[in-house]
């Protein structure tokens, strides 16, 4: 079940990674805490495969929304 979301995330982040890799920037990913562990696992797999760092911030939206509005590359949902 995790395999399909993992592939989707890897594909989505791959589309953003080329320019970030050239600039040495990490990808900034935000979303709710429920799916945080699978998202972090996907981020680690992506980093291992591409060398592009992924910073996953998860929890209640009120805790990360302002920062995400400034630098989010990906925002994921809980359902």
TrEMBL record:
Signal peptide: 1-24
Any matching Pfam family: SBP_bac_11
Assigned keywords, A-Z: Signal
Lineage top rank: taxon: Bacteria
Protein's UniProt name: Substrate-binding domain-containing protein
